[in-house]
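Good morning,

Attaching, inline, the backbone tokens for the sequence recovery test we're adding to the shared suite. The designed sequence is right after.
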């Protein structure tokens, strides 16, 4: 009993230190020592909690590959136990948490069929009225919301906000603001984000504070005020670095580069992008990989404005290649709105190169997507 309580104490301390921004290696070292105790005394429940905790820590720090590995390890262990010992199903909270992470990680990479299979298993293992059902319910609603937003179905996304709010009020308010912003209701979105920011600062929810700051900055440049966005982004960057949130730090640098592009300094933006693009391409969601490559292409074209004709043509060709990569990423998550933006940009670039056939193909695809999707009159340059 003493060993059990001591291990729980270590796991609780690790969780507190993760939120305080301690480095991953120190947290994993602390868990390693308690893991030895768990295996030695066959404390299977604590082994599961430890693996689920590692999954959550790696996701917190933006290391999706490591998070995926830990979640799959817990799933594999449970399968082996069931096969070898005829064990009952593992219906603990830690197992539900790990499976939810697994579903979200697959959805982030555009593997929606795999995410659906994981959620289907969760629904069978944790029926709606069971103790931990709210975990997969929230996970399912968030994935549905993201897919609706990718597809430009803002009214469908808005209808999901009520369910998300019932399960997690902070998440629900944030996603309501995201929908308002997408619908071009800037002042309403700004009021909501400001209230949420004050609340999250009070309860020290640093992850959400940074996400809100990024959304506020986006509101500013969509309102043609990129200079006001810069101090907000620098605040987000300072917080993400202080708390070791690598993925959010990369996301913030991406936004800073975009602000520089809007301000007319694309060379500096391109230089800044090199700091952020590697972790995004390595561990980021597919949508963010596409956004990063799209921004690289925009910066390449803007930087080439003063080049001689031959060098400018080479830069435009390189940008078109990056746009193709961005389009492939967006297609994986069925993000038609962003594909529309890419093909519009490609059509213009092909036109400057005199490649009429490719230009017409992109223009036709743009027209088709433009008829399918809502248009809110936001200029292309103001959309990251």
């Amino acid at each position: 009993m003493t060993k059990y309580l001591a291990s729980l104490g270590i796991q609780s301390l690790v969780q507190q230190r993760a939120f305080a921004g301690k480095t991953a290696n120190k947290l994993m070292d602390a868990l390693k020592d308690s893991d030895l105790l768990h295996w030695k005394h066959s404390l299977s429940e604590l082994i599961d909690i430890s693996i689920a905790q590692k999954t959550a820590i790696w996701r917190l720090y933006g290391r999706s590959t490591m998070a995926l590995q830990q979640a799959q390890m817990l799933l594999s262990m449970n399968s082996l136990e069931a096969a070898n010992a005829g064990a009952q199903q593992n219906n603990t909270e830690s197992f539900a948490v790990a499976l939810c992470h697994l579903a979200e990680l697959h959805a982030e990479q555009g593997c929606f069929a795999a995410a659906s299979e994981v959620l289907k298993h969760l629904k069978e293992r944790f029926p709606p009225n069971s103790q931990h059902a709210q975990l997969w319910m929230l996970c399912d609603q968030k994935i549905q919301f993201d897919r609706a937003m990718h597809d430009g179905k803002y009214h469908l996304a808005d209808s999901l906000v009520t369910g998300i709010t019932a399960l997690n009020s902070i998440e629900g308010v944030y996603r309501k603001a995201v929908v308002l912003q997408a619908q071009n209701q800037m002042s309403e979105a700004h009021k909501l984000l400001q209230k949420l920011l004050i609340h999250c600062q009070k309860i020290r929810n640093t992850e959400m504070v940074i996400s809100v700051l990024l959304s506020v900055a986006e509101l500013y440049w969509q309102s043609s005020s990129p200079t006001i966005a810069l101090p907000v982004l620098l605040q987000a960057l300072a917080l993400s670095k202080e708390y070791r949130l690598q993925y959010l730090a990369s996301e913030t640098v991406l936004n800073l580069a975009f602000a520089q592009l809007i301000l007319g300094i694309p060379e500096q933006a391109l230089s800044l992008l090199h700091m952020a693009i590697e972790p995004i391409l390595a561990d980021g969601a597919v949508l963010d990989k596409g956004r990063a490559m799209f921004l690289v292409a925009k910066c390449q074209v803007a930087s080439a404005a003063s080049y001689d004709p031959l060098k400018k043509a080479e830069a435009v060709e390189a940008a078109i290649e990056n746009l193709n990569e961005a389009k492939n990423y967006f297609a994986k998550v069925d993000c038609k709105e962003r594909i529309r933006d890419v093909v519009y940009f490609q059509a213009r670039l092909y036109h400057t190169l005199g490649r009429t056939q490719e230009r017409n193909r992109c223009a036709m695809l743009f027209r088709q997507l433009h008829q399918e999707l809502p248009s809110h009159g936001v200029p292309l340059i103001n959309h990251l």
